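Design job #97: recover the sequence.
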């Protein structure tokens, strides 16, 4: 007999990849990649920002796939998550390709549903969110399926994957003491806000996840 370290996790759940070694994926997650010619040498991996990949600079580590093949797919799947209430899925997403798409799929006991299909962001990071309340009281896995249609060096990237309570009424107040000049980004308490939208003094920002 033996036991594994992989068990069911409960929200609030967040993966920002900071504790994952480079070129790996988080413990208890799965990844697979295939092409029309067989195995793909590229797979989902945790990386540090690299301007060669054309994804805009990001704070800290993130996970990405380079779909450099003729046709194929690459999948990244979370460990088991128990949705014991009404939750949302949120994450940061960037895609440098006009040809490649990302499907977000939820797997549960009775089957699987496609939650979202996402296209190009021109390498910019965007926030994505999705309501999971339909799957209340079910054990699920979240899968990210990147498909490639042409050979390219394009990159699809993910960061700050969260399963958290559905609540649009959370407000956070913080004191801004420095001048808001240039393109400096405010990062704190789950926010990422351009300095151009902040003022010196008390700022009130609505949380979006």
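Job complete. Output follows.
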């Amino acid at each position: 007999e033996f036991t594994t370290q992989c068990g069911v996790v409960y929200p609030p759940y967040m993966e920002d990849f900071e504790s994952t070694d480079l070129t790996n994926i988080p413990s208890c997650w799965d990844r697979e990649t295939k092409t029309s010619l067989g195995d793909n040498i590229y797979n989902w991996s945790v990386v540090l920002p690299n301007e060669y990949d054309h994804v805009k600079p990001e704070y800290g580590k993130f996970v990405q796939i380079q779909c450099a093949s003729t046709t194929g797919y690459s999948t990244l799947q979370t460990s088991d998550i128990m949705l014991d209430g009404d939750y949302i899925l949120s994450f940061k997403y960037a895609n440098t390709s006009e040809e490649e798409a990302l499907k977000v799929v939820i797997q549960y006991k009775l089957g699987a549903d496609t939650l979202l299909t996402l296209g190009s962001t021109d390498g910019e990071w965007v926030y994505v969110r999705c309501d999971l309340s339909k799957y209340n009281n079910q054990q699920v896995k979240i899968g990210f399926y990147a498909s490639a249609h042409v050979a390219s060096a394009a990159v699809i990237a993910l960061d700050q994957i969260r399963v958290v309570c559905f609540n649009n009424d959370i407000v956070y107040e913080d004191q801004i003491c420095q001048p808001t000049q240039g393109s400096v980004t405010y990062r704190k308490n789950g926010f990422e806000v351009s300095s151009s939208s902040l003022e010196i003094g008390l700022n009130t920002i609505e949380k979006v996840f």
